[in-house]
Structures are given as C-alpha cells and as structure tokens.
Amino acid sequence: MNDYDKMRRKKIFLTILLDVIIFAAALLTFAYFHHVRPSRGEAIKSTIATPSPTPEAPLTPTPSLEPEETPTPTPTPTPAPGDFSAVFPTEDTGVDADYSYQSENVRVAVDKVQENEVTYFVADVWVKNIENLRSAFAKGEYGTGITAWPADMAEENNAIVAISGDYYGARQRSVVIRNGVLYREEMLDDICVLYYDGRMETYTKEEFDLEEAIGQSVWQAWSFGPSLLGENGEALEEFDSSIFVRNPRCAIGYYEPGHYCLVTVDGRQGSYSRGMTLADLSSLFASLGCKAAYNLDGGATAAMVYEGEVISQPSGGGRRSSDIIYVGEEY
Predict the structure, then answer these.
(1) What is the pLDDT of residue 29?
(2) Are 101 and 160 in contact (CB under 8 A)?
C-alpha cells in the first residue's frame, strides 16, 4: 500500500470517527435536555367547569288569605358530581386479599397473582369521592426532567396505593391534566381522560377535543397508551404500538364511576415473571370485567406501592419517574 492510499484511508477513518462523535454528542444533548436537565413549568388553567348560577325566581305577591297548604314531599337529593356515595360498597371488599385497606371513604383490595411464569398485582379500588383518586408530580413540581422514586412520591402524598404514571416529563409534547389543572395542551398520541363525574374514556388523537373535554370537567388526563379495550370492553388483538413483546407493564382500568383498578405486571425476570404483551394485558382487563383500560409507562418504570412499600418487583431495581397515580384519604 502506497503513502497515498494510507493517507486516503486515514482521512476516511477520521471522517467516519468525526461523524460518530457528532452523532453521539447530539444524542447526549437530546438526552440531557429531555431527560436530565430539569425544566419547570406552570399551570395553564383549571379544567373543572363551574356551573352557571341558577337565576332566582321572581317574587310573587302574597295573597291576604292563604289557602290550606298541601305538604310538599321532600325531594331526594341529587348526588354532586364526583360523589359516589350511592354506589360505594358498605361491605369489606378485601376479604382474602393479599393487601386490604377499608375505610368510610376508600376501599382497596390488592391481589398478587402468579401464573404461567407471570407475576402481576391487581388493586381493586372504590372511592367515595373522585378526589380520592389523584395524581402527584415528582418533588411536587410540574416540568420535564424532574424525577423521583415512586415510593417517595407515594410517601409524600400519604398514598394508600400508588402506581407509576405516564412519565409525562420524558416528553415535550402530550396533554397533561392533573387534579383538575391543565399544564400542557399539545396533543401527541391517544389519551385517557378521567372526568370529574367518575367516567373514564380513551380517545385517539383524531377523536379528542380538549375544549369539549374541559367543558365536561376533566379531573385527570394521561398520555401514553395504547387503549387496551374495545368499545364494549372486549379484548383487542391489534394495537397502535411498536412494543409488542413481553414487558413489565402498568395500566389503569375502569368499571363504573367510583370503581377502578390499578395493575402492575413484573417482567424481564426469567421464570419469576416474563412480563405481558399488550394482547395479554388487554385480555386481563377484559377478564376483570373493565369497560375501559389504558396502558401507562412500563419497563423499569412499572411499580406498585402499598402503604409506603414497593410490593411489586420492578425490573432492574426500578426507575425514577415524573409522576404517580394514587389513592388517598386526604384531599
């Protein structure tokens, strides 16, 4: 090989090396700004619609001689939006459960299930008021790159049971509504909406109208997905997702206003638990009888915390995240 060829090869090698270095630097910069560097934000507005005051009826003259009055029957009070007292169970829902919390406002029963080399946790949740089902930000702050361990977030908010949320802080886009407050309004993919009246519905990007939803009083909105059940609560086999293989999973399900379930699936841990595919997760929610269900951030993020203890076994020891979904007494 002559000197010219050597110099030519060296020049090509240096060019390729420089390209690799530039590409790596770009990736590191992206990761820093999107996952490491904290960026705090502010709330935009409340998403709980305030009803218009009912106009007062005009006064009518009182006649000098009043006829005998017929007793007016006492009307049955209409429950306020978000009040599920009428359907809240009076019996203990945690009989034979692995973990149980029963009070006048909240009933939680958690079961650990191990079958077919999969381990998962199902928290059956009843709340008397929608405000008993809440979200919390890492360190109590909204923004990107702000993270904390799910157990720490649960402890800070006196959570009875909590699961990792949608990790909104890892993305610059997606609608973020938490506890009745809009923080981010740019739509990314499909979305799960929990209304103040207790309904939980999922929408595609094309179906969702933010202002219309706010007009119906949105309590929470999570953006990760996909939706896991069909319109009639049936299991699905096809999903708009690129992650089809078995993985640790985290998801929320809906039965009726005031009645929900939280699911965490362990995975990537050999015969203890290989995780679930999206089709597996869909079948699980269908078998539980849920009307709607939504996939949240999984992988190492997926975790379930019960009264301060991480009862699931997160992959690789777990991962810090930006938010949790939890059930609590105080609000």
Answers:
(1) 44
(2) yes
Taking Cα atoms as reference points, which of 175, 196, 195, 200 lies closest to residue 185?
175
Amino acid at residue number 278? L
Name the average pLDDT for the chain: 88
Neighbours of 77 (CB within 10 A): 7
The alpha carbon of residue 282 and the mean position of all alpha carbons in its chain are separated, in whole angstroms, by: 16
How close are the terminal C-alpha atoms of the chain, in Å? 78
Radius of gyration from C-alpha coordinates of the chain: 25
Q: Is the peptide bond preceding residue 67 cis, with omega within 30 degrees of 0?
A: no
Query: How many Å apart are CA 169 and CA 144, to the nearest integer?
Result: 4
Of 214 and 53, the one with more pLDDT = 214
Give the Cα separation of 241 and 318 in Å (integer): 23
Give mean pLDDT, residues 178-196. Answer: 95
Q: CB-hemisphere CA count at 13 Å for 132?
A: 25
The CB density around residue 213, as the number of other CB atoms within 10 Å, is: 19
| CA–CA distances in Å: residue 112 to residues 100, 253, 307, 317 | 12, 17, 15, 19
Q: Identify the three-state secondary structure at position 182.
A: strand
Segment 146-174 shows an average pLDDT of 97
Q: Which two tokens stand for residue 70?
A: 């017929």
Q: Could you give the CA distance from residue 252 to residue 27 in angstroms, rounded to a whole number?
A: 32
Find out whether 154 and 321 touch, Cβ atoms under 8 Å: no
| pLDDT over 60 at 92, yes or no | yes
SS (H, E, C) 100-168: EEECCCEEEEEEEEEECCEEEEEEEEEECEHHHEEEEEHHHCCEECCCECHHHHHHHCCCCEEEECCCH
Residue 312 scores a pLDDT above 90: yes
**89: which residues sit within 8 A by CB, 6+ positions away?**
107, 126
pTM metric for this prediction: 0.83
